[in-house]
Amino acid sequence: MYEKEKQSLIDCALELKRCRLITLCGGNVCVRLADGNIAVTPSGLDYEVMTADDICIVDSMGKRVEGHRRPTSDLDAILFIFQKMPGVNATIHTHQPCATALGLIADVFPACLVSQIDALQGDVPVAPFTPSSDKGMGELTVQYANGSNAVILRSHGVMAFGSSLQIALYAAVYLEEAAQTYLTALATGRQVQPLSPEMVKAELGEPDSWANYLQT
Ligand SMILES: [Zn+2]
């Protein structure tokens, strides 16, 4: 079952790899399915060799429904996010270098670029450190999200999410691009001008304008 959905996780992970947001078997991709079960990438398996049979299907409590692999070690955190954020149907966890670097030196990535605002809704919060493979990753993501489509996890990586896998993917990739641009500007030593709340609102436009912009 779920062959199309399982393949979409692998396609997403390979795109993340092409964009250099993940390496080898780092990170994970998870989708809440129409029946409430959750499809998750397995722990410790290179995405290049992953097939649909390797994807794990669990119920909302994490009990195995289908698949023979061990699910991602971040499953407890992912389940917590799905439980507490009913509008979220997909999560992407990465160790993407530029956004993670930014989390080492700042408490927030202030809204200053249009692609950041479009894909992430504005400021991107930085959550304090919590160990990997710990439910705390999910608890801090929910606590710090504040309307953003991603949270930077200090000294670890990024948790991106959205109502669809496409929206979560764009959040992760555009966050990395924006963080690289922001870090490049910071490296000049000159002051970086964030956008005002009015400018952010003007860029955001109508509710759901970003979701309507994306085509499948
Ligand atoms: Zn991680």
Describe this structure as you would to a colleague.
With 216 residues, the protein is α+β, with helices and mostly antiparallel strands. It has one domain: 3-Layer(aba) Sandwich (L-fuculose-1-phosphate Aldolase), CATH 3.40.225. 40% of the residues lie in helices and 16% in strands. The chain contains eight helices and nine strands. Strands 4-3-2-1-5-9-8-7-6 form a nine-stranded mixed beta sheet, with helices on both faces. Helix 2 (75-84) runs parallel beside helix 5. The protein is globular, with a radius of gyration of 17 Å. The relative contact order is 0.15. The site of zinc ion has 5 residues, from loops.
User: What is the CA-CA span between the terminal residues?
Assistant: 22 Å
Residue ranges: pLDDT <50 for 5 or more in a row? none
By CATH, the superfamily comes out as: Class II aldolase/adducin N-terminal domain
- Bin the strand percentage: 15-25%
Biggest β-sheet description = 9 strands, mixed
Strand order of the largest sheet: 4-3-2-1-5-9-8-7-6
Structural class: alpha+beta
Number of domain modules: 1
CATH class equals Alpha Beta
Keywords: Lyase, Metal-binding
Domain Class II aldolase/adducin N-terminal: 7-183
Protein name: Class II aldolase/adducin family protein
GO molecular function: aldehyde-lyase activity; metal ion binding
